[in-house]
Design brief:
With 218 residues, the chain is of the alpha+beta class. The chain contains 3 helices and 8 strands. Strands 1-2-3-4-7-8-6-5 form an 8-stranded mixed beta barrel.
Length: 218
């Protein structure tokens, strides 16, 4: 059953448009998030037409390429990555720590499964509004959930932190990847940057970057 659920989730992420729905109400109570399940995957897939991606994350070195949603809930975490801080508090445009999370799945290449394979020095790209933000990875860590230092802002710096659980058997541990902003691109001025959101595992179809298809490099 879970093998089927993985396929349902993967197909929905890649092929269901995430820019036409009105969007779900943002929530940020991570303690309410349930572990991955076959039932949850099917329910999330059925809600795909209602969600609305508000950004995109790409880590080309490991093939992560997912839509980003406003708020963390049991639908968003099945269909991509979810912002874990309210937008009036933090976005990639603001100085501080932009944090996003997704499920860890045992199937290779699904959601944040490959997050532990990211190496320091790798690039993380976040698409937000009309810009793409490029980060250099500085930390790849395995931590416990009571260590909240990685969620904190760093004075005067723009950072991104991606995180996921280690496994169902270790609910109190997390993998985190954290990087510092090194460059900003305005999409209208530099369409080549869109290539960072295309890879073998996922293209722009069905994701936030679909909104930029008219700017796609040939």
């Amino acid at each position: 059953n879970k093998q089927i659920a993985y396929r349902v989730t993967d197909y929905t992420i890649k092929h269901s448009s995430k820019i036409t729905g009105e969007g779900l109400k943002p929530t940020y109570d991570l303690e309410e998030i349930k572990p991955f399940s076959s039932e949850g995957a099917v329910i999330a897939a059925a809600q795909a037409s209602k969600v609305r991606a508000k950004g995109q994350v790409s880590i080309p070195s490991v093939g992560i390429n997912l839509p980003i949603y406003e708020g963390a809930n049991d639908v968003h975490l099945y269909l991509g990555a979810a912002e874990t801080r309210p937008r009036d508090e933090m976005t990639p445009e603001k100085v501080g720590n932009y944090t996003i999370a997704s499920h860890m799945m045992p199937q290779d290449g699904f959601l944040f499964n490959r997050l532990p394979k990211v190496e320091t020095g790798s690039k993380v790209y976040i698409a937000f509004n009309d810009k793409v933000y490029e980060y250099d990875v500085k930390h790849v860590e395995r931590i416990t959930t009571d260590d909240d230092t990685w969620l904190m802002d760093q004075a005067g710096k723009k950072t991104v932190t991606l995180y996921t659980c280690v496994s169902l058997a270790l609910p109190n541990e997390r993998y985190i990847v954290q990087g510092d902003l090194v460059k900003e691109y305005t999409v209208n001025d530099n369409t080549e940057i869109l290539k960072q959101f295309e890879n073998e595992q996922n293209t722009l179809t069905g994701t936030y970057m679909e909104a930029y298809e008219n700017l796609r490099p040939e």
